[in-house]
Amino acid sequence: MIAKVVVGVCFAYLVVNLFFLRLQEPTKDFPDDEEHFNATLSNILKPRSPGSKGHDEVRDFLLLELKRLGFDTHRDEFVDEITFTNVMGVMNLGSPNYLMLTCHYDTQRKRGDNFVAATDAAVSCAMLLNMAKTLGPYLREVFKNRGDIGLVLVFFDGHDLLELSVDGENGLYGSRRFTESEPLPLENIEVMIALNLIGAPNQSFRSHHESTFSLHKMMAEIEEALIAEGHMQKNHKLFHIVQDHNRDFEDDHYQFLNEGVPVMHLVPHTYPKVWNTVDDNAENLHWPTIQNMNAILRRFVHQYIENHDDYVSFRGD
Ligand SMILES: *[C@@H]1O[C@H](CO)[C@@H](O)[C@H](O)[C@H]1NC(C)=O
Ligand SMILES: *[C@@H]1O[C@H](CO)[C@@H](O)[C@H](O)[C@H]1NC(C)=O
Predict the structure, then answer these.
(1) How far is the CA of 288 from the centre of ligand 2 (A)?
(2) Domains and CATH numbers, the chain
(3) Which positions, given as ranges, span the membrane (predicted)?
(4) pLDDT tens digit sequence for 219-238
């Protein structure tokens, strides 16, 4: 009888312990660092058209920050009418496959001293750095033992035209330069994800390319999961599982698309109301969207790398 009770108590003790052990298992969650995001954004949020003082400052800031976060940095200065500089950070250089995330850091010329282009694309650039910061310890550790995948962040220059553009026409000097000079072999880029125009109210995101529809769905599922876990700010849903594969608009990814690199355009369905005006500033940003996008992107990159194996291909072969 006593033996039975002892066994019973021991068993219960074991169950309770296992239960708490499970609870204490480190979740694969990486906390926000909004202080870092805000500081990063404020370093970028200034007029930064090619050739200006602000442009030089932002270029140097990006390089410094990438280095600080553990990336190998690459600064590609080139002349195409005027001088431009692409900025790149690579983790696991020499990998046969890269997950590449990009934004453009230049602003349009001739739009005045107060034109800071918050959604176009200061927020996107700050998001990339914030992702690398919040995943930092994981990224630095995981790439010590991985031969299958590397991470690349590219900050393109010369996205905008040198003259005032009217209806969304672009210069794409930086992305053209990249695909022509191949600082990384294009065939090693598993997927190129271009972020732009993020951070305004009422944004929704659709899939624009069949080859990367699975990644779009992954973003939507991550958003659902984060909401269910209570990790999201109160906001409307950002990712919609909608195949808008016949429609997209020109951005840096077009250069890569032309070269057969699988692309994803992480861009809202509609242009921000303040787009190309001096009101595209910090005041008019929509913070729940930014906070939630940061959380989604972070988990996306983590899952992409965690679940990656040697046989991932979006090239349809
Ligand atoms: C970041 O900036 C936003 C907008 O100014 C503000 O609402 C938020 O509290 C800031 N976050 C931190 C951690 O300072
Ligand atoms: C966003 O959508 C809401 C509800 O549909 C609307 O009231 C608001 O004016 C919209 N805001 C912007 C900036 O488009």
Answers:
(1) 14
(2) 32-307 (3.40.630.10)
(3) 6-23
(4) 999 999 999 999 999 999 99
